[in-house]
Amino acid sequence: MKVELLELEGDRIRFLLSGATMAFANGIRRVCMAEVPCLAIDEIALYDNTSVLFDEQIALRIGLVPLKAENLDTFARPEDCECGGQGCPGCRVDFILSVEGPGMVYSRDIHFTDPGVTAAFDNIPLVVLGEGEKLVIEGFATKRIGSDHAKWNSGTLCGYKSLPSIEISGACNGCGKCVKECPRQALIQDEGGRAKATNTLNCSLCKLCIEVCEAGAVKIIPILDSFVMTAESSGEMPAKELVASASQEIRKRAVEFEAKLAELS
Amino acid sequence: MAYRCTRCKKTVEVDYEYSGIRCPYCGHRILMKERPTTVKRLKAV
Question: Cystine design at B26: which of A166, A241, A258, B8 (Cβ 3.0–4.6 Å)?
Fold first, then answer.
């Protein structure tokens, strides 16, 4: 298996995975989306809400705020915690939000008791408060996974495509139609006017070039063991850490599965 | 259960035995239910 980094930009990573099966690439994608644990606000206690929004709507909005934790590994999932899910500093982080209008309530107004935990983006608007309106909320955040609820999704945009191999046969008459048709600029014309593949990583396998080529000279074959993978985190962790955590999660499950099998025999 | 008259802003107790709703101070017929003083616990979903 080979991994080649194509692009890394904070929350977004793009890499070429070669020598792996599609099932493995899909496994990485699925785990990135729904199995990497992260923090999200779980329950709230409303002391005062004189804003225009219903309590339930505020609860929904506050729950969807992505949270960043410097010490995420120190937290346990409530069901795995020593307290048995009752709630302790090992599995939950308390917060308070107390704002009086007029003005907009932003995600930065959520103050956690643990200084290492903050909102991933400090400018997420929650509600507009008018003159004299108040919002006082207390609550706690827990560490869970995306399959429990979408608010614990660490990865937002995760996907992959097969790496294409673009072949131009000798039948190419140099009409240039395929070059004009390609929306991703994966083809150019060489000195002789013949089409030539230039940036195969950009090719989305739409096959428009095959449709317009009257001579039937273009062939696009997906390479079955190479994948261009893209992962974007919701801001809770850098994208590289997200993919690393996903592979650790797969490993953990494989080890657990192995242990269960050993118990059977 | 406490209600508040939208015109005179006074807290009003509603007499459930009387068929209509009316503010005993100003006679206004639109009353607002006050938010309970208890803490409301919700799942953030």
Answer: B8
Q: Does A59 contact B at CB distance below 8 Å? A: yes
User: Model confidence over A22-35: pLDDT tens digits?
Assistant: 999 999 999 999 99
Residue B42 is nearest to which of A40, A56, A151, comparing CB atoms?
A: A56
> Does domain A2-34+157-230 match CATH 1.10.10.10?
no
Residue spans in chain A of domains classed CATH 3.30.1360.10: 2-34+157-230
What's the predicted TM-score (pTM) here? 0.82
Taking residue A7's Cβ as centre, other Cβ atoms within 10 Å add up to 11
* Interchain CB distance below 8 Å, B40 and A55: yes
Q: Cα A175 to chain center, whole Å? A: 42
Here the ipTM equals 0.73
From the list B35, B39, B45, the residue facing A45 with the nearest CB is: B39
Please state which CATH number belongs to domain A38-152: 2.170.120.12
